[in-house]
Structures are given as structure tokens and as C-alpha cells.
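Researcher: Next entry in the queue.
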Amino acid sequence: MSKTYEEINDKIKKGTAVVLTAEEVSELAKTLSPKEIAHKVDVVTTGTFGAMCSSGAFVNFGHSNPPIRMERIELNGVQVSGGLAAVDTYIGATDCNPARPAYGGAHLIEDLVNGKDIRLEAWGKGTDCYPRKHIEAVINRNTVNEAIMYNPRNSYQNYNVATNGSDRIIYTYMGTLLPGFRNASYSTSGELSPLLNDPECRTIGLGTRIFLCGTEGYVTWNGTQFHSTKELNGYGLPVSNARTIAVIGNLKEMSTEFLRAAYYEKYGVSLFVGIGVPIPILDEDLAHRVSIRNEQITTSVLDYSDSSRLLGRTTYADLQSGEINVAGKKIRTSPVSSISKAREIAEILKAWIEKGQFLLSAPVKPMPVGTSLNSLKAENENK
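Model: Structure for this entry, 383 residues:
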């Protein structure tokens, strides 16, 4: 059997749609076939909450009198982009003041969401139409015209496990890695992860409506570093970093329950972002895909001290057990994302759909296929 978005949305409006979280449908799949699940279930909700460095927000401050063309902008002492017309900026999550590395763009974004005052200082060269050369002011969520979250790369389909085989501690975006393979960290939320429940992005594309940091958001494009790898496990899932999504939403409507700044020691600032994607069960194939379980999802274990050397592979069931066995070594594991928050996001999105507050949107443009990644080479690298 097959269904359409229109049929599913009609059921949502009537309050008759059957909605399960990804964990619930994975449990159901132990007793029902994909065909039976496709007949019974209309929507499956997913969730992830983790550090997503490639995130940020566009902000418009409004014009002063006399006006200024801001060419250098600092917010609470953090330099942000001055290359967006007169009084617009983009706050990158990892923007920071090197003299104060533990506070950066992610904190500014969280402060905006919380309604806190932020000190703005900006400079320009002065022009006939923008004569002012310097301004100091205080801004907050209520004074700025727009605050739009736009994240170029979020919600990795899968992500590698990080460990450290050297004899010294190393500090990374995957957290602090102890020497001698004494710990390993991982990020993806396993069977709850959005892009693992629709691995070929049949229902995820430009225009897909999603949960984004506590409010409604949208997928705007394939994320940067998106690549449809052919290295798959026996269940048709990538075994390392693969597809990503770019997303957008109204920062003023977001909640710090699902958007939090973080600082990784000796690495820098990042932003924890909460994303939930509803997967419409259009047919038996999608019912099969969303039935994936943690023990069926494989990822790669890399030694971050040795040019990300591949050590082996493991499953999310083993990762979430607290210990993995790689190359004869038992390694303690810990997540750098929150499974409990991912579960909460999937439950909230489920409730929104069941109450008729959230309809599904079909992509107006699909994700690309057959993509690969280029590497950056220094000018003298091949000489």
C-alpha cells in the first residue's frame, strides 16, 4: 500500500493519524512486518540534540540617526560579520574573542533567545549616505528587527566515534580524549537520528517542515559536506559521516531548552541544537527504514591522535551500553550529545502532530545523489 502527504495531513487535521517515535516503531518492528507497519502507522518522529558548530544567526539591528554602514561589529566583545550591508550581521556559533575563548557566538545566540541585553559596538569608514563612523548601543531580542537562525550544516546522518591512542590527552570537538584508548566519545542519537530513519532522504529535502530548537523550522538545502557515500553496512546505512541538512527558523521563537552554548576545553565554542524531523510512512520501504534499531546501525571508530586512523567499527547498541571492544581493547564510551533530549524532541513533535498543530510538508526539491567531498590542499602540498 502507499499513502500521500495529503492523505496523512488530512488524518492529522482530523486527529486520527497514528504517530510513533522512532524508538516506538523500532520496538513495534520486533513483532510486525514493514507491510503491517506501513498500514498501521502514518508518521514517525525523530530527534537529535548535539553540538553543531556549523550554526548561526542573521540579525538586523535597525538604523541609527545618523546612519552607519557597519564594517566591523562586536557584540559583547566578540567580533561578528561586518560584511552584510549596513546593519545586518551573521553571528557564527564559533565566533570568539581569542582573549576570552570560553564565550563566543553560541553564547550570544543563547543570550538573544533568553532576552538578555548585549552590548553592540560598531565601526565604519563613513560615507555620504552613512556618515556615522562609530556607535555603541545595547540590543536584545525585542529591539532587533529580525533574528533568524540559519545553520549551514546540521544533523549529520552518522558520525564517527573518537578515541585516542597516543600517550597524551588531546582536546577535540568530540570532547577530551584520554591517552591509551581510555575513553571514546560519540555524537549521533542512533535509532532516533533523523537522517538514519530516512537514509536516502526520500522525504527530507528543500521545504521539509521540522522541529528546530523548540519551534517550527524548515530544511533549506542539503547541508555543507553532504555526500551520499557508497560505504554502507548490511542494512543500507552509511558507516561514517555522510548526509547533512541546512536549516532555518525564527530565533525569537526558540527555547534554550533546545539551544545551548557550550565550550570544549582547549578547542572552543559550539552550539547544541535540537532538531526533530517527522518521517511520513508513505510506503513499505519507508516503514522498513524507520524500523532500524541501534544494534543494526554501524559507525567507524577513529584514532584522533593519528590522522583519524580507522580502528574498526561498532554499533550504537554497544556505544550506548557504555563500553565497546575495538581491536581487542575494551574502551569506555560516553555521548557528547543528549539521548534524553533527543527522546524529548521526538515526543514533543509527536504531540504536536497528534494535536493537529504540525502538518507535514513535502520537499519541493530533493537532496542530491551521487555526491562526494573535495579536500583543501595547501599551495605547496604537492610540490
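Model: The chain has two domains: 5-52+154-354, 62-144.
Researcher: Noted, moving on.
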